[in-house]
């Protein structure tokens, strides 16, 4: 699937943090917004994502936008919700530096779900669609 084709389909949800499209039965795509990440916006976004997938973890392909670094409480909430909201995550970094930083962060501490950074949607989808994350 190509991103241009996906973006022509109807959105399935939108929050302060991202706009969502259904890629396939197991995967959603999020176009991240450069909004501030707070406990409130993360909690609201998590509730939306869970509602999009019948409260079950979903594979996520996310195009990362620049945003401010969240405070400690927000980072802790995001880390706690990550494995119960998502089963895998493919991140599309806007540039090589962002991708390097993300890989550095997750290289220090193994994430609780499969995660990988890509430069484009097609590679991200190819990787995430091959993952078997059934439990």
Count of distinct strands? 6
Helix content: 40-55%
Helix and strand sequence: HEEEHEHEHEH
Number of helices: 5
Strand order of the largest sheet: 1-2-3-4-5-6
Broad shape: globular
User: How is the main sheet built?
Assistant: 6 strands, mixed
Q: What percentage of amino acids are in beta strands?
A: 15-25%
- Low-confidence region ranges: none
Radius of gyration: 14 Å
Ordered list of secondary-structure elements with their pairings:
Layout: H1 3-6, E1 13-14, E2 18-24, E3 27-32, H2 39-52, E4 58-63, H3 72-85, E5 86-92, H4 96-108, E6 115-118, H5 121-130
Parallel strand pairs: 3-4, 4-5, 5-6
Antiparallel strand pairs: 1-2, 2-3
Q: How would you characterize the overall build of this protein?
A:
The two termini are 26 Å apart. The relative contact order is 0.17. The chain has helices spanning 3-6, 39-52, 72-85, 96-108, 121-130, and strands at residues 13-14, 18-24, 27-32, 58-63, 86-92, 115-118. With 135 residues, the protein is an alpha/beta fold. It has a 6-stranded mixed sheet, with helices on both faces. It is built from 5 helices and 6 strands.
